[in-house]
């Protein structure tokens, strides 16, 4: 008998889950509060944001056979270009191997490709339908038009402020921890130059680090880049203080001078939109089971929203879909067992990702400028080049492999202890050399 699945949310996780479930033989319907992203004008209306696709996301897209078709929609990024306040640019490669690159893609384009693929596999979509209630016992969800939809499996892929998650926890024991960052973000477009060419290096992620603000820019296939400006919400140099054109101009002039050349209408763009917030969500449990082997499960941001500073939110969401599919394959006739296995396999690792994403905020904000950090990173990469299988930097493990996040952290901590020793030894030798030189200088002068 064909099993029925309902997916709430046709975002990145929802549309990919729908594809996996359809391939596994489920009859799938997706309920999405927004309109069809393929409708004329939807691209312009939607969020312009582009995302860095890395290995975990790549593996999932390859599994469903979509990777090749996406290639023309992506721009490869081989490393970071760090913009320093004095105008200096510093290139930091992501890795040592040819395939250790990230791919920048517009959220909208990726979403449309996934929805198209789901459609091709016979998935039904109900656009403009917001889920307002969930009945755990059936399970069933009710949409804002008053219709109740039942299914064997309900997947909550409705993002960081998930309605499914809220209803999952009603009247029972459920952990929910939400943490908002004191910084928010706005997007700015670095358009192409008057000659139609990119205004800066296209094949890289651009970073303007700083303790008062941070900018990250991803390239687009049309030669433009989308920059995300992260600033504190409060304070004179936060979003609250940067109100008039003059204040905005002088702030960027002082902190990120080259952005005013790259974005001639920066001030207008900056003042045109309110800032958005960033949230980390941890919750447990991720699933409930109902009678007759039915159940509800959360995936993607609904289960584990993270700050975007490791560029892993979408990649982790895609990996969720792939892991869930494997769990369903391992328990073809036992949905509760599959959902339980999914949660126990996956949650410890996404908890680690939440911590790593917070930590990378500090790294991008403060450390990428630091010569010690750069030196350490160089040693880290040099050791990786020498021992490619045994020494793998944390960034590489997270972005360019599918080693589970928790294992990646354990391995990196072990390496860090060694690296600390190596760096201390190198610094010690350098200091000893300096001291020797200054003693000799004293003797000769
Ligand atoms: P969403 O994309 O939020 O989709 C949820 C969907 O559910 C939406 O379509 C929504 O309309 C729908 N929905 C919500 N409520 C309901 C309801 N009640 N009924 C019906 N439908 C509903 N990740 C990366 O991997 N790489 C990056 O470079 C990266 N950069 C980022 C930069 C920024 C500034 C931000 C904020 C995030 C970034 N992320 C990145 C994270 C990434 O955007 C998210 O992790 C990803 O979008 C999660 O996908 P999702 O499908 O779980 O949630």
From TrEMBL:
Alphabetic keyword roster: FAD, Flavoprotein, Membrane, Monooxygenase, NADP, Oxidoreductase, Transmembrane, Transmembrane helix
Cofactor(s), names only, from the UniProt record: FAD
GO MF assignments: FAD binding; kynurenine 3-monooxygenase activity
GO biological process: kynurenine metabolic process
Domain FAD-binding: 4-350
The keyword NADP belongs to this UniProt entry's keyword annotation: yes
Residue spans crossing the bilayer: 418-435
Superkingdom per UniProt: Bacteria
Keyword Lyase: no
Pfam families listed in its UniProt record: FAD_binding_3
Name of the protein: Kynurenine 3-monooxygenase
Protein's organism: Saccharothrix saharensis
